[in-house]
Amino acid sequence: MNQAINDPSSASEAPRSPSPLPEITKVPTLWTFVGLIGGLGLGLAMAMRAPGALAPLLAVAEPMGDMWLRALRATIIPLVVSLLFMGVVQTVAAARAGAMARRALGWFYLILAGGSAMAAFVVPTLLLLIPSPPGAAAALRSSMSAATTQNAGPLPGAGDFVASFVPANVFASAANDAILPLLLFTAAFAVAAARLGLRQRDSLLTFFEGVGGATLVVVGWILWTAPVGVFALSFAVAAHTGAAAIGALAHYVLIVTLTGTVMFLSAYPIAVLFGRQSLGAFARAVIPAQALALSTQSSLASLPAMLGACRQLGVRDRAAEFTLPLAVALFRGTGPAMNFAVAIYLAHWLGIPVDTWHMVAGFAVASVMSFGAVSLPGAISLVTSCGPIALAMGVPVGPLALLVAVEVLPDLMRTLGNVTLDVAVTTVVDAMPGLDDEQVASD
């Protein structure tokens, strides 16, 4: 894989691929979900049976929950900047492998940006067709503390908005959560770094690897305490809102999963129209990979089954063995759409109007952050991918802390859609003309 994404014509000057991310503390998904259910159940029971005893418990639970989500939010900026830099470096390296790599990368980004655009239209439509339980959003808004719902601020008018793409002071942008200009600068900086000499490029890559790796370790520590943090937050929410919290979380899971389902289903027409596959043959071939994806929740673990699906579909080995590993490394087909859906839902949840410029900002960040997508547990990806989008839209990220507990359910659709789209885009690359004449770096 590393050989495949280096430029064979200038191997001595090719930037090395980013080093593997460090092992992080395993997120206790089951216990986090138990903490959510326990907090909601206890808060609801006490609100109904012993409301007079809530005050002293809330005096402890609310500061504890706020402290936990503040710690989580503190990691967003350094982590997303580091991951984006490494992702752009890896993408530039991949693009040097030849025409096949550039075709694959072009299709990756077309699908990712298309997914973001789709979410901008589909999610508001779903919210109209499937409204949240009556009073749930209002009750949840009233239950959140000021720190949790602190708005990142309204976006400026059209002229100021466009001008803000170029930050006057990138450090001030980071300090003020001006995420869109910060990420655009980071992407441009990473592309510029690729034009430096090998020694300077590797020095910068090593620096961002270190920052990203260390921050991920800190995120792992914070999420290791997720059962306690989520318990405190959910207890406070249920104590204030009663059963409304349960209905709102279920509604959130439904809307985000339906958005991911649209991306999952899009893989079939992509394979048929552009990959020249029959619908039935494609559907049958990907079933083993889909089953493995649902059982492991890992695109990487599903790679052998995806290769088997491509062979069954008649995809040439050269295309499959090059494109699929590249897709697993760089392509998260459902990511921008579902991450954008989370941010839009948070805005709906908190009653924040999402105007055209907020949508443009969200679309831009969702599309840019697709270069920084890495294979991480769903709970961590929720913070690293959805947090920047929400900040760009002027939406508080505090409520993400509660959603960490239920991410295991939408994450099933994320993996299912990613695996299916990986196979679909591989059939498209194989069907494009000129493959027989191309010498791939991995040959």
Protein topology:
Layout: H1 29-49, H2 54-74, H3 76-95, H4 99-129, H5 136-143, H6 158-163, H7 170-175, H8 179-193, H9 198-224, H10 226-241, H11 244-273, H12 279-296, H13 303-312, H14 317-330, H15 335-350, H16 356-369, H17 378-392, H18 400-403, H19 408-431
Helix pairs in contact: 1-10, 2-10, 3-8, 3-9, 3-17, 4-11, 4-14, 4-15, 4-16, 4-19, 5-10, 5-11, 8-16, 11-15, 11-19, 12-13, 12-19, 13-14, 13-19, 14-19, 15-16, 15-17, 16-17
Describe it for me?
By secondary structure, this protein is mainly α. 71% of the residues lie in helices and 0% in strands. The protein has helices at residues 29-49, 54-74, 76-95, 99-129, 136-143, 158-163, 170-175, 179-193, 198-224, 226-241, 244-273, 279-296, 303-312, 317-330, 335-350, 356-369, 378-392, 400-403, 408-431. 53% of the residues are buried.
Task: Name a few traits of the molecule.
single chain; 443 residues; mainly alpha; 71% helix; disordered N terminus; disordered C terminus
What's the alpha carbon Rg, rounded to whole Å? 22 Å
Low-pLDDT runs of 5+ residues are 1-12, 437-443
Biggest sheet details: none
Average pLDDT score = 79
Number of strands: 0
Structural class: mainly alpha
| Helix-strand sequence | HHHHHHHHHHHHHHHHHHH
Task: Give a short synopsis of this structure.
The protein has 443 residues and is mainly alpha-helical. 71% of the residues lie in helices and 0% in strands. The chain has helices at residues 29-49, 54-74, 76-95, 99-129, 136-143, 158-163, 170-175, 179-193, 198-224, 226-241, 244-273, 279-296, 303-312, 317-330, 335-350, 356-369, 378-392, 400-403, 408-431.
